[in-house]
Design goal:
This protein is α/β, with parallel strands linked by helices and 312 residues long. The protein contains 11 helices and 8 strands. An 8-stranded mixed sheet has the order 3-2-1-4-5-6-7-8, sandwiched between helices. Helix 2 links the parallel strand 2 and strand 3. The two termini are 31 Å apart.
Length: 312
C-alpha cells in the first residue's frame, strides 16, 4: 500500500458506500481524514451527523486519526468552511476526494425543474465548490515557496461517461464532472496539484434500484463491492503518481479502464463550407444503418474488455 503518512484528506459523502471505503482506505494508508457527510436521504433531504461520526469511530478504533464534518458541499461558503476545518483540525490539506451525491431519477419528459436543479447542484457544484477552495489553499502554499504534492479525485459515473436512460440530470452532472476534471488538471498542475476522476460501478444505496442487491456468492470475488474502488483512489494519491493527471478511470470489479472520451471519430472534411444536401448524403453513405449511442450496459461491457494497447 502506498504510504500516505503525514497527509490530510477530505472525503465528501464519506458516511456510507464508496465514500466510506475511500475514507477507511486512506486512513489505513496513513492519512488523517476529514469525513464529510451531510447525512441526508438518497434524494438529498434532511441531515444526520451519525454516518460521518460512525466512520470516524471506525478509523479511530483502528488507530487512525479522523474528524467528522457535516457541511453541505453544494454550499459555496460551507465548502470553504470544510476546507478550513481540515486545515485547523488535522493540520493541513493534501487530498480532496469529491464523492458526495444524490439521485432523483426520472425520464426526461417527466422530470421537473427541482429534480434537475437538486442533482446538478449536489454533484456538479458539489465538486466545484470544494475544489475551488482547496485549490486556493494549495496555490497560496505554492506561491509561498512550498513544494506541493496535492491530489483531487473526482467521482463521475458510467451514466456520465456512457449515458443511461432515466438519468438526464445525474448523467449530465457526472459528464460535467469528467470535463471539470480535465480543465482543473490543466489549470492546477502549475501548483503541484493532480486532478483525476473515477467512474465507479458498484453496489451502493444509489444503485440498488437499478441493479438490485447483486451480492456475490460466498467465497467468490464480489465485483460490485464498493471497496473495490478504494485502492484506485489510494494509488492516485501517492506521491509516485505526481505525473498522472487529467484521467478518467472506469472501474468495475478488477477492471480499471483509463477512458479516452470524445476522441476523434469519423471525419467529414472538405476545403469549403458544406452544402447540407451533400453532408446528408455523406452521412447516409458512412452510416447506412444510422448511428446511435451504444447505451451504458454495452459501453461498460466494452470498457471492461481487452486493453486497446494490448491489441495495437
Amino acid at each position: 500500500m502506498p504510504n500516505l503518512d503525514g497527509k490530510v484528506a477530505i472525503v465528501t459523502g464519506a458516511g456510507r458506500g464508496i465514500g466510506r471505503e475511500h475514507a477507511l482506505a486512506l486512513a489505513r494508508a496513513g492519512a488523517r481524514v476529514l469525513v464529510n457527510d451531510l447525512g441526508g436521504s438518497l434524494a438529498g433531504e434532511g441531515s444526520d451527523t451519525t454516518p460521518a461520526q460512525d466512520v470516524v469511530a471506525e478509523i479511530e478504533a483502528a488507530g487512525g486519526v479522523a474528524a467528522a464534518d457535516g457541511e453541505n458541499v453544494a454550499d459555496f461558503a460551507g465548502a470553504e468552511r470544510m476546507v478550513r476545518h481540515a486545515v485547523e483540525a488535522l493540520g493541513g490539506l493534501d487530498i480532496l476526494v469529491n464523492n458526495a451525491g444524490i439521485i432523483r431519477d426520472r425520464m426526461l419528459v417527466n422530470m421537473d425543474e427541482a429534480e434537475w436543479d437538486a442533482v446538478i447542484n449536489v454533484h456538479l457544484k458539489g465538486h466545484f465548490a470544494p475544489t475551488r477552495h482547496a485549490a486556493a489553499y494549495w496555490r497560496e502554499r505554492s506561491k509561498a515557496g512550498e513544494q506541493v504534492h496535492a491530489r483531487v479525485v473526482n467521482t463521475s459515473s458510467p451514466s456520465g461517461v456512457f449515458g443511461n436512460v432515466g438519468q438526464a440530470n445525474y448523467g449530465a452532472a457526472k459528464g460535467g464532472i469528467a470535463a471539470l476534471t480535465l480543465i482543473a488538471a490543466q489549470e492546477l498542475g502549475r501548483y503541484g496539484v493532480t486532478v483525476n476522476c473515477v467512474a465507479p460501478n458498484a453496489r451502493t444505496r444509489m444503485t440498488e434500484a437499478a441493479f438490485g442487491d447483486m451480492a456475490a456468492t460466498e467465497g467468490e470475488f464480489d465485483a460490485m463491492d464498493p471497496a473495490n474502488m478504494a485502492p484506485i483512489v489510494v494509488a492516485l494519491c501517492a506521491d509516485e503518481a505526481q505525473d498522472i493527471t487529467g484521467q478518467v478511470l472506469f472501474v468495475y470489479g478488477g477492471s480499471v479502464n483509463v477512458l479516452e472520451g470524445w476522441s476523434p471519430g469519423e471525419l467529414f472534411a472538405r476545403d469549403g463550407i458544406w452544402d447540407a444536401d451533400e453532408l446528408l448524403a455523406e452521412l447516409r453513405e458512412r452510416f447506412p444503418s444510422g448511428a446511435q449511442p451504444l447505451g451504458m450496459i454495452a459501453a461498460m461491457a466494452g470498457a471492461g474488455g481487452q486493453s486497446q494497447s494490448a491489441v495495437q
